[in-house]
């Protein structure tokens, strides 16, 4: 089985972080978000990972080649025209069943294992990752009619009043090649995209063999607050409670868990932690206090500044780009 990771998204709501990098390359305690999602697919024994990327993302290909121990293929998505469009670009390279995931959706690895097992047990053409949601969230996701284990209907981003249930379809799927034959028939939606849910609905109508499995939990990175929360959790789970690759003045207090990359300058009398991740090239002035924070490459903290529950981006991220 192959894995497909959709990593061409711009991540507008993650700004300012995504002014200098894509969402897939957002840092989570030292490992890119997209790589952490890919790890879930690799754990299922996939024999190849196909990554759909933006031509403007210059970091992701060398990063994945260095950090992923599996055969890789990269496919460019020149225009962001939806998940069905992204999948259509991969069709020439698929040779059987595959796992498809967005790059910002983290679920327990046991859930992905259950998805694969359920898919094979029931001889399904597709198996969807599902999760109950509040009805007011229906307009932000796909919503299904689910009669376990079968998915009877799927609707993309309905108004809450029109939602057929409170069960959301997450961007994680197991597919047979049958879905690929339906992609050419997906029409441009009102949102200006080719929706994968439309192809799934066609599959439901044609075969009836579309299943769903409820995940007990999920983390989606949409905003900077989501990314910060994910970093705090990942730091709590880090075996080495303090990892520091930069030299520190003797009077700097470090409160675990903290990770500090190489090339970080920290002034005297600072307090760092708990739950702080500092990327390379960050400069922190004397007497600063940081807690529950993510500092991105090139960021600066002035002397005496108090940082708590923040993602700090470099000033260059906000500078207008030269035409």
Write the layout of secondary structure elements.
Elements (H helix, E strand, L loop, with lengths): L1 E6 L19 E2 L2 E2 H10 L5 E6 L6 H8 L4 E5 L6 H8 L7 E5 L2 E2 L2 H13 L4 E7 L9 E6 L2 E7 L10 E9 L20 H12 L2 E5 L4 E2 L3 H13 L5 E3 L8 E2 L3 E3 L4 E2 L4 E2 L3 E3 L4 E2 L4 E7 L4 E2 L4 E7 L11
Parallel strand pairs: 1-4, 1-6, 4-5, 8-12, 14-16, 15-18, 16-19, 17-20, 18-21, 19-21, 20-22, 21-23
Antiparallel strand pairs: 2-3, 6-11, 7-13, 8-11, 9-10, 9-11
Task: Write structural notes for this entry.
- With 323 residues, this protein is an alpha/beta fold.
- It is built from six helices and 23 strands.
- The strands form five sheets. Strands 1, 4, 5, 6, 8, 9, 10, 11 and 12 form a nine-stranded mixed sheet that branches. Strands 14, 15, 16, 18, 19, 21 and 23 form a seven-stranded parallel sheet that branches.
- It is elongated.
- The protein starts with a strand and ends in an 11-residue tail after the last strand.
Describe the structure using short key phrases.
single chain, seven-stranded parallel β-sheet, 6 helices, elongated
What is this structure, in a nutshell?
The protein has 323 residues and is of the alpha/beta class. Helix content is 20%, strand content 30%. Strands 1, 4, 5, 6, 8, 9, 10, 11 and 12 form a nine-stranded mixed β-sheet that branches.
Helix content: 10-25%
Q: Roughly what fraction of the amino acids lie in strands?
A: 25-35%
> Would you list the SSEs in sequence order as H and E?
EEEHEHEHEEHEEEEHEEHEEEEEEEEEE
Q: What Rg, in angstroms, do the CA atoms define? A: 21 Å
Instruction: Compute the average pLDDT.
Output: 92
Main sheet overview: 9 strands, mixed
The count of β-strands is: 23
Q: Could you name the ranges where pLDDT drops below 50 across 5 or more consecutive residues? A: 318-323
Count of individual helical segments: 6
| Span of the ends, CA to CA | 44 Å
Shape: elongated
Pairing-aware structural class of the strands and helices?
A: alpha/beta
């Amino acid at each position: 089985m192959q894995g497909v990771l959709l990593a061409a998204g711009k991540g507008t709501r993650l700004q300012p972080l995504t002014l200098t990098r894509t969402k897939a390359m957002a840092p989570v305690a030292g490992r890119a978000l997209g790589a952490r999602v890919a790890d879930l697919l690799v754990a299922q024994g996939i024999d190849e990972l196909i990554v759909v990327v933006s031509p403007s993302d210059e970091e992701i290909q060398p990063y994945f080649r260095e950090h992923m121990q599996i055969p890789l293929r990269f496919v460019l998505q020149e225009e962001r025209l939806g998940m069905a469009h992204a999948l259509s670009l991969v069709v020439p390279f698929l040779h059987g069943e595959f796992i498809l995931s967005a790059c910002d959706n983290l679920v327990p690895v046991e859930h992905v294992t259950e998805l694969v097992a359920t898919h094979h047990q029931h001889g399904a053409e597709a198996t969807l990752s599902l999760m109950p949601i509040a009805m007011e969230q229906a307009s932000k996701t796909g919503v299904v009619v689910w009669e376990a284990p079968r998915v009877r209907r799927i609707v993309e981003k309905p108004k809450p009043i029109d939602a057929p249930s409170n069960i959301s379809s997450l961007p994680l799927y197991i597919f047979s090649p049958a879905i690929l034959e339906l992609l050419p028939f997906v029409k441009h939606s009102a949102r200006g995209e080719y929706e994968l849910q439309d192809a799934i609905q066609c599959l439901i109508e044609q075969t009836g063999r579309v299943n769903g499995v409820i995940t007990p939990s999920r983390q989606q990175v949409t905003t900077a607050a989501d990314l910060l929360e994910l970093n705090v959790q990942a730091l709590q789970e880090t075996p080495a409670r303090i990892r520091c690759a930069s030299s520190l003045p003797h009077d700097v207090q470090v409160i675990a868990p903290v990770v500090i990359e190489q090339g970080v300058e920290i002034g005297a009398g600072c307090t760092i932690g708990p739950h702080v991740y500092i990327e390379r090239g960050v400069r922190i002035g004397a007497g600063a206090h940081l807690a529950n924070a993510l500092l991105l490459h090139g960021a600066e903290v002035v002397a005496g500044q108090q940082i708590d529950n923040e993602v700090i981006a470099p000033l260059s991220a906000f500078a207008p780009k030269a035409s």
